[in-house]
Amino acid sequence: MTEMRDATTSDVTESGAGAETPRLRISGVGRDFHTRNGVTHAVSGIDLSIQRGEFVALIGRSGCGKTTVLRMVGGLLQPTAGTMEVDGKSLWRDGRVDSSAVTKLGVVFQEANLFPWFSVLDNIALPLKLRGVGKKERRARAGELAELVGLTGFEQSYPRELSGGMRQRAAIARALSTEPELLLMDEPFGALDALTRERMNLELQRIVLDTSSTVVFVTHDIQEAVFLADRVVQMTPRPGRINKILPVDFPKPRDVELQTTPEFNEIVRALRHELDEEE
Ligand SMILES: Nc1ncnc2c1ncn2[C@@H]1O[C@H](COP(=O)(O)OP(=O)(O)OP(=O)(O)O)[C@@H](O)[C@H]1O
C-alpha cells in the first residue's frame, strides 16, 4: 500500500541531527502579490528540504503556486516570508539574491527564451561562453548536448527555424551545459509530443544520474512526476501550500515499462485521488 506523508511531518527526519546540509532548504516561505484587486497570497508556509542528488517533482492544480515557488528558488522572485538556502547559504539577503548561489542553478521554464540572433549551437554554448570556456571546448560540448536532445543537424539553425518542441529541447541543452548543481524545470516537456516527451524523460533521467544533479521539476503530468521523481510534492491552492509529500522508491534508472506495473499505477492513482479530493 502506498503511504502518503503529511507535509507537516516530512522534513523532521531530513533536518534532524547528523543530516547533511541539504542542497536546498525552504523554510516558512510565502509570497504575496499586491494587485489592483487586493492581495493574492500565492504561496504560504512552504517547508521543504531537498538533498543532493534528489529529484523532486511539484504537482498541483493550475494556480497552486508551483511556478511561484520555482521562481523564488531560481532567484527571480523575492519571497515575502521565510528563508531559502542553497547548500546552507541564504539565497536572498537584504532584498538581494546571492549571485554565487545563482551560478549553481540551471533553469528551464515553459518558454525556451532562446536568443533569436544566435544559432542553436551558440545558444546552447552561451552559459559556457559567459563562464570563459574556450571556443573549441564549448562548441564540442554544445554539439554533444545538441545530439543528446535530438537536435543533430540543426546546430546552425536559428530558433525561428525550429518547432516549439525543438526550441524547448535547445533550452534544456543550454541549461545542462554547465552541469548545474540544482536544475529547476517548469513544465519543460509540456510542449512536446508524447513520444518525444517519453524520450526526453529517459534522457533527463540519464543526465541527472550521470551528473548527480539535484532537480526540482514542475509538471501537470502525474505519470511523468512519478516516473522521474524520488519524491512527489503535491500542492493545493488559495494560498498555495504543500499538502502531501509522496516518496517514490523504485530503483533507478527506471525503464518506461515501469509505467505498466501495478505498483507504479497505485502511486499515480493515490496522487490523482488527492487532487480529486480538492474539488
Ligand atoms: N506576478 C503576479 N502578480 C499577481 N499574481 C500572481 C503573479 N504571479 C502569480 N500570481 C498568482 O499567484 C498564484 C499562483 O500562481 P502560479 O503561476 O505560481 O501557479 P502555478 O501552480 O504555477 O499555475 P500553472 O500550473 O497554471 O502554471 C495564482 O493565483 C496567480 O494568479
UniProtKB/TrEMBL annotation:
Residues 1-24 are annotated as: Disordered. The keyword ATP-binding applies. Keywords: ATP-binding, Nucleotide-binding, Transport. The keyword Transport applies. One of its GO terms (molecular function) is ATP binding. Residues 24-262 form the ABC transporter domain. InterPro entries: AAA+_ATPase, ABC_transporter-like_ATP-bd, ABC_transporter-like_CS, ABC_transporter_ATP-bind, P-loop_NTPase. CDD domains: ABC_NrtD_SsuB_transporters. PANTHER family: ALIPHATIC SULFONATES IMPORT ATP-BINDING PROTEIN SSUB (PTHR42788:SF13), TAURINE IMPORT ATP-BINDING PROTEIN-RELATED (PTHR42788). This is ABC transporter ATP-binding protein.
